[in-house]
Amino acid sequence: MSRLLPVVAALATATFLLMGWFSWTVLVPAAGGQLPLDARLAGYDGAAVLDYLRALDDGGRGVYLLEMRWLDAAFMASFALSLGLGLQILARGRGRLLRALLVLPPLAYFCADWAENAVVRELLLRGAEGFLPELAAWASRFTQAKVGLVLICVLGLGALWRRRPCEA
Fold first, then answer.
1. d(Cα 143, Cα 120) in Å, to the nearest integer?
2. Most CB contacts within 10 A, which of 7, 64, 104, 124?
3. Contact at 8 Å (CB) between 75 and 29?
4. pLDDT values of the chain reduced to their tens digit, one per residue, 168 residues
5. Of 166, 122, 158, 156, which Cα lies nearest the Cα of 142?
6. Is residue 32 within a helix (H) or strand (E), and if so which, with residue range?
7. pLDDT at residue number 167
8. How far is the C-alpha of 117 from the C-alpha of 68, rounded, in Å?
9. Sequence-distant (≥ 6) Cβ neighbours of residue 115 within 8 angstroms
10. Beta-strand runs (E) in the chain
11. What is the per-residue pLDDT for 54?
12. 149: Cβ contacts below 8 Å, ≥ 6 apart
């Protein structure tokens, strides 16, 4: 596990940087300066989604649905695995129940991010003409859940780091 973590974390970092590059060089300009939906970490309301869908041009929509979709899939898998490996490595020597429970937050993060991407994809495919406020509400909830679950993972990593055995 210890040897795998740097490789997986490097993949997560590389895909995150590529997504940032696509976001700032393609998606933000293609939407009149607006951030992509999944970059709005506090969530968003239906009016903001509708405004984004109206502003996003066809080129930006294509990049969002193709390149960003694949990059985000690689990112969320490698990031969730990085979080999970980190938690497991820091929990070595602890009880099986704790280690089993520590699998849940990264797995839940992965599921929330996957669900967010699926709903955002549906919103993008429907466009402003087929906009459904319920989809926007679900996308926002999944975005907020994803962010909250990452925070739980980071807090877990911090707590385990502070309680790790000191090496002399």
1. 10
2. 64
3. no
4. 779 999 999 999 999 999 999 999 999 999 999 999 999 999 999 999 999 999 999 999 999 999 999 999 999 999 999 999 999 999 998 889 999 999 999 999 999 999 999 999 999 999 999 999 999 999 999 999 999 999 999 999 999 999 876 654
5. 122
6. none
7. 58
8. 10
9. 138, 142
10. none
11. 98
12. 105, 106, 108, 109, 112
* Encoded tokens for 80: 């969730």
Instruction: Delimit the domains of the chain by residue range.
Output: 4-162
- Greatest pairwise CA separation for the chain in angstroms: 64
User: Cα dist. 47→6, 89, 110, 131 in Å?
Assistant: 41, 43, 27, 10
C-alpha 107/C-alpha 101 separation (Å) is 10
Q: Which DSSP letter does residue 103 get?
A: T
Of 38, 65, 70, 75, residue with least CA distance to 127: 65
Q: Copy the structure tokens of residue 82.
A: 């990085």
Tokens representing 146 are 């994803």
Return all residues near 113 (Cβ < 8 A) that are at least 6 apart: 72, 76, 80, 142, 146
DSSP letter at 108?
A: H
